[in-house]
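User: For a benchmark we're assembling, each entry needs the component sequences followed by a predicted structure for the full assembly. Here are entry 17's components. Please fill in the structure.
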Amino acid sequence: MIEVKPYWQNYVDGHWVDGGDGRISVLNPAESAVLAEQALADAADIDRAVSAAKRVHQSGVLFALRPVERGRMVRAMGQYLLEHIDEIAPLLSLEQGKTLWEARGEVTNSARYFEYYGSQADTLEGSSIPLGAGYFDFTVNEPYGVSAQIVPWNFPMEIASRGIACGLTTANAVILKTPELAPLSSSWFARAAEAVGVPAGALNIVCGYGASAGAALSAHVDVNQIVFTGSVRTGMAIAAAAANNVVPCVLELGGKSAAVVHEDADLDAFQRDVRMGIYLNSGQVCSAMSRIVVHRSRHDELVERVTALAASIDVGPGIERKDFGASMGAMISEPQRDRAAEMVSAAVGDGATVAAGGRKLNRPGAFMEPTVITNVTPDMAIAQDEVFGPVVSVMPFDNEADAIRIANGTDYGLVAGVFTRDLDRATAAARQLRAGQVFVNEWFAGGVETPFGGFGKSGYGREKGREALWNYVQTKNVAIKLGARS
Ligand code: NAD
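Assistant: Structure for entry 17:
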């Protein structure tokens, strides 16, 4: 067990500082006991962080760097995280509940964002636009300036990494508002920045409540761009705040994503996809496979396999689950776990059947059994609303049109999957599925290189992939009238 220091400060303008809103107790959800205290920023702290970021931006210090140098700095931050993975991953596991092997994976993926984006700093070329004799015209990709980033608790490091890496790579100064339920491991971003020589004020890490610090940040008049990942409700508030200040924002919101499983699918392989698709991070994944829409001829076999899988998963304190395998940690909090359990009970009230799990674990901590629900109809709340827990709903279909209609039949549109050996069928489904990302024969296929984001209420704008970098720059066109000799 690692020693967790009792109190964690925010990082503003290169200094470790207390918060104007006092402190919050961060719980270890595997024990529902206090792990440490975290400083809570108020609006005045946010204002100081934004002022520092604005000063850095206006000084031009980041934009003046040769891009390859800025890129090396960003890559070095990722390297620093990897060098400290043995300290960061246990902390992340303890504060968030996920297994240690998942936490190690998250830190590794975080580092990968710094590597991927840092390596592209010198590739953001502009273009030259022909205007005929007498003119020379070109475009430059300039940073917006102050990038405000607000992230949720489910992957606090991974989600923050993509924003910080893109922001710094493109010479923006960044303020990260960390999630109040799992803020501790994000302090390692500040340590990384200090260690590799990021200028003071270019990266600020502040924890605070959403309604106070988060709202103050998203509404701040000196913020030039906002990146938000979280719930639809908060996303709407952020979009309104961005609109008020006429600044762009990227919204990565929730999902209710479906896997469409055809009669010719390889169910051995699909069972492994379910393992990661819905039980990774206890189902607290925006792109979780929360619905399975399966051809009626394979329904019973699939339910049998998925219930056996659910029953085989070993659930308990994440910190004790070190090795990759069929294990699951605690959910983020007891209220979040209770909400998931209540949604399962409500589904039973609506006529659904619990085929596996469905209950809280009878032990301290925010644990829930891996759950499979059958006899679900597409209009039930359990098939429409995001549970954000280890709960998958299985629904049969009779023909392809039916399958697509069920899969597309929610307000969301984050990801979708199709499982079949028939390439024509897969490509037709990929066209018809209303989602920002379609997986064929492997849930979560892709990587940091592939653009990610939603259709519909799942948000707009894309993160990950090269496409994300364009969210952080604005085009400036320079038109030069040449002299008579041209
Ligand atoms: P949330 O919206 O409650 O909180 C997310 C962040 O926003 C937190 O840091 C919170 O403090 C802050 N916040 C809350 N109210 C705010 C306000 N009024 N103004 C500014 N900031 C505010 O979401 P959550 O419960 O922490 O996270 C779960 C949700 O996030 C789920 O819906 C999930 O699907 C979504 N999510 C989406 C993605 C994605 O990439 N699409 C990834 C992970 C999670």
